[in-house]
Amino acid sequence: MISKYIACALSATVLLSCNSNNDTQRSVALDITFDSPAMMWEETLPLGNGRLGAMPDGGITKETLVLNEETMWSGSEWDPSNPEAQKYLPEIRQKLLEGDNLAAQNLMFQHFTCTGNGGENPRYGYYQTLGRFEIDFSEMFADSCFEDYSRSLSLNNAVANTSFTFNYNGKKAKFSREYFVSIAQNVIVVKLSTENAPLKFSFGFSRGERAECKSNGTDAVMSGMLNSGDETKDGVRFVSLAKVVSQSENEAVILISASTDYKQIIEHKEHNGFEPIRKEVDSVIDNSPKDYNLLKDNHITEYKKYFDRVSVNMGRADADGGVAKMDSAALYLQFGRYLFICSSVNAQLPPNLQGIWADALHTAWNGDYHLNINVQMNHWPMEPGNLSDLNEPITRYVEGLVPSGEHTAKTFYGTSGWTGHVLANAWHFTAPSENPTWGSSFTGGAWIALQLWEHYLFTKDSAYLARVYPVLKGSAEFLRENLFEKDGCLVTGPSTSPENAFRFNGQRCCVCAGPVMDTQICMEIFAAVCQAADVLDTDADYAQLLKNTSLRLSPMKISPNGYLQEWLEDYEEIEPQHRHVSHLFGLYPGTTINTPELKAAARKTLERRGDMGTGWSMAWKINFWARLGDGNHAYRLFKNLLHPVPATNGGISYSGDGAGSYPNLFCAHPPFQIDGNFGGSAGVMEMLLQSHEVEPDGTRIIRILPAIPDEWESGSFHGLKARGGITVDCVWQKGKITELKIDNPFDQKIIVEKGSR
After folding, report:
1. If DSSP states are collapsed to H, E and C, what string results for 438-468?
2. Nearest 10 degrees: CA dihedral of 517, 521, 527, 530?
């Protein structure tokens, strides 16, 4: 049944996308369709505007919309500093210098973790669903039979629809629903309409805990307060309001608004109870147009400003070289862009592990911002996908991490600068976690700071660079001050290669000095700060210090067996096919694996790791293989990413069927994590266009179709971005580029290379 659902979701678009003519391609309908109501949450259709999310299930006698608001975070700010951690840091490093990793790890468990049990503490908090909005139609239907059922999501318009026919008094009647989350008005809009039958319904909110719900027939309201985890602090208050704004015998329009006081809390402003939040949601609905067509037109107009910048079509060629059958990767690329727009535009916070869509009061892994890959992967499609102007939420979030990260740097390490480890949340948690085997890696802050540098590389916005330069420099300075000498080179430590373990004296060990990923991140952030200082004409002496430091970093090592070593020593991996491939950070998204020898070692590493893994892991591997110019292998990983996974009704527990995609194309870790969707979308773009390489004189290399598989004989893409603010359009037929347009707005020196290497 799942295979049928995924085929249904993809095939409708394929059939509509069989013409490779450029103008037709730009107007192709990109729809995800179903022929029955959703039975599980992972079959519902995601709608959003950054602030609000809604997932309608298309039920027949009862429609349920799972609702989300981006700031629905339990927990609160708190200081998890460990006063004795810094005292034991020299001893831990000495054990690493002596080669006694287990002793260092044991010391960390005893003395070098945060207080309060980290992510398991109620004060850490978690992202959670706003609740449910239910519309009951049982009075309309009695014993009717239902036919011609259709449920769909238009990626072109960010509008979902449900329709079916039924018997009413011996006549065939039609029932239609249309839903969208307005980018223009910041409301959820639901239109109900019937033909040949009167419209009858009731509605209301529900939530499993911490909410009061009321309804009077035309209005419904839900309010509550989340757990702060601290008896001395109030938690986040929330209010949601639904109102019928127009109604006739055959049609009704419902607007839903929601808000919280998270912003007041995080900005340390005075709490004023529920009244200001209620006034805000009232005002949003009162100031929204009541005419449905105007609401819809405003929404689609705003949405298309983002979505229509890019079009993609590729697949098997027909006799004339056009696309006879569109490949599902084009839809997946656009679905990733759709999800990013819907979880970022108008947003205060960047998309978390679930974007903004959650069906649980306690989301898996707290629905937080893991800094060892996940939040970074969430932003991989943003720049190449021509969505650079949605960068503000992640920029603001990283800037918000800095004060906490400076406190962590000072209290745990006794150094300046700022840092973040693995765990991060809406309350700017940056400390090492409760478990050193996975939570002690301290390069997460630098990795997420590099996302801000990427924004500059793609936009050449020097004003933005000046704004974020202190963030970049502070991250680099923390790492520089925490390097120490081992075997004549500078290394980080204590650290880990995220979540992976090696065998040490017969025992499982993770803590080490100088994991290769750390070295690569140091090289990237030091180089970024040096280049930024040059652009801004500042800090020349400091830039030289970083250049000198980079020269002393431990070099990457190739094992006698040909693969890139993950650690300074060629330790025996406990899980050779581990889901993390962190030591290939320098291949993607980094650029330090840049010689034939290192690339060959990276290829050997990927072959050892294998093609399977969790959803986001397979997405990462697509990008790796694309960087290596192997389109067929990248495409094989993409097909693995579409492996159908049974729905779990909320995605709280692991499925035994492995990773892949749920029926609504949400990526299965399992359970659902949105990073796989974003990483897979970016991977398809990386197969079409690359721009990460630069010649010694600064000339940027633009690679067109660097990793296309045999299946993509013909196709086109329009509007993809390369670094330097460059926009690229391309058409190819039977493997040959027939049209190419490159818009180079800054008149930079570039080299254009066509085809796989």
Report:
1. HHCCCCHHHHHHHHHHHHHHHHCCHHHHHHH
2. -150
Last residue of a domain, one of 544, 560, 592: 592
Burial of 361 (0-12, 13-18, 19+ CB in 10 A): middle
Q: Which residues of 616-649 are buried (b: 16+ CB within 10 A; e: fewer)?
A: bbbbbbbbbbbbbbbbebbbbbbebbbbbbbbbe
User: 90 exposed, middle or buried (CB, 10 Å; 0-12, 13-18, 19+)?
Assistant: exposed
DSSP state of 563: S
Provide the residue range defining the domain that includes 413.
Answer: 81-120+391-592
Residues 109 and 132 in one domain: no
For β-strands 507-509 and 660-661, DSSP reports them as unpaired
- Whole-angstrom distance, CA of residue 83 vs CA of residue 116: 12
Three-state secondary structure readout of 528-568? HHHHHHHHHCCCHHHHHHHHHHHHCECCCCECCCCCECCCC
Bridge partners for 690 per DSSP: 703
- Last residue in a domain, options 565, 592, 619: 592
Q: How far out from the chain centre does Cα 277 lie? A: 28
Beta strand extents in 318-445 (DSSP E only) = 323-326
Torsion of CA 534, 537, 539, 541, to 10 degrees: 70
Shared-domain flag, residues 302 and 402: no
190 and 43 share one domain:
yes
Peptide bond between residue 670 and the one before it cis (omega within 30 degrees of 0): yes
Q: Domain for residue 4, yes or no?
A: no
87, 66: one domain: no
Pairing of strands 131-136, 62-69: antiparallel
State how far the Cα of 279 lies from the Cα of 220, in Å rounded to an integer.
Answer: 15
Return the structure tokens found at 11. Answer: 């095939």
Confidence of residue 9 (pLDDT cuts 50, 70, 90): very low
Quick one: what percent of the chain has pLDDT higher than 70? 94
Extract the tokens encoding 687.
Answer: 């197969």
Does residue 380 form part of some domain?
no
Amino acid letter for position 555: P
Average pLDDT, whole number, for the chain? 93
* Separation of alpha carbons 509 and 507, rounded Å: 6
CA–CA separation, 236 and 277 (whole Å): 11
Structure token pair of residue 33? 């369709």
Give yes or no for a contact between 459 and 479, defined as CB atoms under 8 angstroms apart.
no
Beta strands in 505-656 (DSSP E): 507-509, 572-573
Distance CA 292, CA 243 (A): 14
Tokens representing 627? Answer: 């960087």
CA pair distance 728, 743, nearest whole angstrom: 6
Instruction: Provide the pairing of β-strand 188-195 with 202-206.
Output: unpaired
What digits encode the pLDDT tens for the residues 312-323? Answer: 999 887 777 777
Q: Degrees (nearest 5) of the Cα angle 140, 144, 146?
A: 105
270-300 pLDDT, tens digit per residue, is 878 999 999 999 999 999 999 999 999 999 9
Q: What is the pTM of this model?
A: 0.95
Q: Specify the 3-state DSSP secondary structure of 500.
A: coil
Confidence tier at 513 by pLDDT (50, 70, 90): very high
Q: Rounded to the nearest 5 degrees, what angle is found at the Cα of 564, between the Cα atoms of 603 and 697? A: 80
Residues 96, 73: Cα–Cα separation, whole Å:
39
Residue 360 within any structural domain of the chain? no
DSSP string, 565-577: PSSSS-PEES-TT
Q: Is residue 170 part of a domain?
A: yes
Residue 475 is inside which H or E element, if any?
Answer: helix 462-481
For position 5, what pLDDT does the model report? 34
Count helices and strands (H / E) in the chain.
20, 29
| For residue 663, cis peptide bond before it (omega within 30 degrees of 0) | no
Give the chain's domain count: 2
Cα–Cα dist 321/27, whole Å: 20
Going from the C-alpha of 648 to that of each of 149, 239, 653, the distances in angstroms are 23, 29, 7
The closest of 391, 387, 396 to 338, measured between CA atoms, is 387
